[in-house]
Amino acid sequence: MTKKEIAKNYFLQGYNCAQAVFLAFAKDEGLSEDVALKIASSFGGGLGAQREVCGAVSGMCMALGLKRGYNTAKDYAAKQKHYLAVQEICAEFKKQNGSIICRELLGLDKNNLPLKSEQRTGEYYKKRPCAELVAMAAEILENYLNKNN
Q1: CA-wise closest residue to 40 among 23, 27, 52, 24
Q2: Domain that holds residue 138
Q3: Quick one: 147 exposed, middle or buried, by C-beta within 10 A (0-12, 13-18, 19+)?
Q4: How many domains in the chain?
Q5: Is 128 helix (H, G, I), strand (E, B) or coil?
Q6: Interior CA angle at 39 toward 68 and 74, to 5°?
Q7: First-residue to last-residue Cα distance in the chain
Q8: pLDDT tens sequence across 51-68
Q9: How far is CA 85 from CA 29, 39, 71, 124, 143, in A?
Q10: What is the pTM of this model?
Q11: Whole-angstrom Cα distance, residue 11 to residue 56?
């Protein structure tokens, strides 16, 4: 199964967009499912349903950090290299979707946002492209990682 399929499947099980993408990659790095889900839980709905940066994008960036992030405070070269990688994957997501902002991706009025999660119903999935955005974010990261071994 591809990361795209894995992430979409997690989303369709009810996990938020960030959790779905992050979890698709976290297990490979030895992170338990429980810990991965807790780490990513705040980022769904564009950061706690605030409709800011898309949770799928946040999950993608968290997974990149887990796989290729830096961990030395004064290693500025590693920090710059990592930030460039984040910018590259975010630019690809934006190129494919026009934005990395949740409310823009969902076509929501920023002055009248639903600041809560919604029940996952058939109607929810009809009006929300989230499952496809999750799949796309996972695919972008998987392609990036494969291209940049």
Answers
A1: 23
A2: 3-147
A3: exposed
A4: 1
A5: coil
A6: 40
A7: 20
A8: 999 999 999 999 999 999
A9: 19, 21, 15, 33, 12
A10: 0.94
A11: 10
